[in-house]
């Protein structure tokens, strides 16, 4: 499927609700940008759908053919997204024994985890634009093959250095599933279906860390730490076959080589950087992630002060992931009746209410494990309402650059989230008050970004 370049055109315009509607589409045959002009869009991810004064046949279509939202397709896309998070967390129980196994320090063992995260985050910046130009499926298949290779290398690593290198290769490969999975949601689902799909993704992401940790612990005890990586290699192979057989093909752009390829890559990111609405969506996603990472970093410290032992810690830590699943389930029901901005506002209200209760209880001197866990149930529900429409907006704002948009969102989440976790160590934690204040700070930044987004750039959604 090839698309002819078009000339700028004007229409009898209806206001699409977006302050600057001069979207840029990618001409797939010539590899140049074509200005859409003032064609009114219906704010379904900036996909131009209304009839314009100029013939619609003259417009570049969406670069990926849309497919029916079958259950199999949904499961396939969600599984591709979850693979990286499963590979990241399944070996966490084994890391406690690696210092003794390899005769190394705990800091050296932690480097294997940090190396995975670094590769996982940074490679998303490469996979995104590559998938925009060469197609989702080919790039995803390469990434999955790399992930399987890294898993096998890790399973047979003779020392910690080789294991760290293998984990970085594994992270570099599994990053493809995260960024291309999000782009596929934009490609294959429209309007409310896209937000519902992001909610299913959110529910899966909430289940992955506790499920992978539980599975990894059992495999470690019964079969040894190598079994975790062999299971990931087998799962990656199954996902490779599922992607090859079950995901739709697309006609890629005319590939560029050498400097032209790098110019095309950078021009896509430059186009996104010039879209204020996209930057606000990314900021909102990033600070929401930072709020969660602040909880992950601070909750063990606070609960330790409350007398919670390591054996019981997970029961309280799971309060946000489980309630996050509930929030995503609610989003799948509400999205059919309410617009995205209303669901996002409801999410912010629930989040702020939960954090306000947490801070009030801490200031009142009520320092018990339940005084931390119960208010944060509201935060998990709030994030479950907030994240799916925010993700849908991030990848749907400029459909032709969905892969690049997903990449920018993914790496920004990782970097800002990591800083949120680091900031926890900068303040004392005798109780939950300081952690609550940090989480309120991140949430306040997100709320401000959301207000600016819908007040000045997306006036009607």
TrEMBL record:
CDD domains: MFS_MdfA_MDR_like. Keywords: Cell inner membrane, Cell membrane, Membrane, Transmembrane, Transmembrane helix, Transport. GO terms for biological process: xenobiotic detoxification by transmembrane export across the plasma membrane. SUPFAM superfamilies: MFS general substrate transporter. One of its GO terms (cellular component) is plasma membrane. It is a multi-pass membrane protein. Belongs to the major facilitator superfamily. Bcr/CmlA family. This is Bcr/CflA family efflux transporter. It comes from Caenimonas sedimenti.
């Amino acid at each position: 499927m090839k698309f002819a370049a078009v000339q700028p055109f004007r229409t009898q315009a209806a206001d699409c609700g977006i302050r600057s509607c001069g979207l840029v589409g990618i001409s797939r045959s010539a590899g140049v940008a074509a200005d859409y002009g003032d064609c009114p869009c219906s704010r379904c991810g900036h996909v131009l759908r209304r009839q314009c004064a100029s013939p619609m046949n003259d417009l570049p279509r969406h670069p990926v053919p849309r497919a029916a939202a079958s259950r199999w397709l949904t499961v396939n896309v969600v599984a591709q997204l979850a693979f990286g998070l499963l590979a990241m967390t399944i070996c966490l129980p084994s890391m406690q024994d690696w210092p003794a196994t390899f005769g190394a320090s705990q800091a050296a063992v932690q480097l294997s985890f940090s190396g995975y995260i670094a590769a996982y985050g940074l490679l998303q910046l490469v996979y995104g634009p590559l998938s925009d130009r060469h197609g989702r499926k080919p790039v995803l298949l390469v990434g999955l093959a790399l992930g399987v290779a890294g898993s096998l290398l890790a399973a047979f690593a003779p020392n910690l250095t080789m294991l760290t290198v293998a984990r970085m290769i594994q992270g570099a490969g599994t990053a493809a599933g995260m960024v291309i999975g999000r782009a596929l949601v934009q490609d294959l689902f429209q309007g409310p279906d896209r937000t519902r799909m992001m909610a299913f993704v959110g529910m899966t992401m909430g289940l992955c860390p506790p499920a992978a940790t539980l599975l990894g612990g059992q495999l470690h005890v019964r079969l040894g730490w190598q079994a975790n990586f062999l299971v990931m290699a087998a799962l990656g192979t199954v996902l490779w076959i599922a992607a090859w057989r079950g995901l739709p093909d697309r006609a890629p752009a005319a590939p560029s080589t050498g400097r032209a390829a790098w110019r095309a890559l950078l021009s896509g990111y430059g186009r996104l950087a010039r879209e204020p609405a996209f930057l606000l969506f990314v900021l909102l996603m990033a600070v929401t992630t930072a709020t969660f990472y602040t909880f992950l970093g601070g909750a063990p410290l606070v609960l330790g002060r409350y007398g919670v032992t390591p054996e019981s810690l997970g029961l309280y830590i799971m309060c946000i992931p489980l309630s996050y699943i509930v929030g995503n389930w609610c989003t799948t029901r509400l999205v059919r009746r309410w617009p995205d901005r209303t669901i996002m506002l409801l999410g912010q209200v629930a989040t702020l209410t939960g954090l306000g209760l947490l801070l009030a209880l801490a200031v009142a001197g009520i320092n018990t494990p339940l005084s931390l866990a119960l208010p944060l149930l509201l935060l998990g529900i709030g994030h479950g309402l907030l994240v799916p429409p925010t993700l849908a907006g991030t990848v749907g704002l400029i459909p032709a650059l969905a892969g690049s948009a997903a990449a920018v969102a993914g790496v920004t989440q990782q970097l800002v989230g990591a800083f949120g976790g680091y900031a926890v160590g900068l303040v004392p934690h005798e109780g939950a008050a300081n952690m609550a204040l940090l989480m309120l700070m991140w949430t306040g930044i997100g709320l401000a970004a959301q207000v600016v987004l819908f007040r000045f750039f997306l006036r009607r959604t």
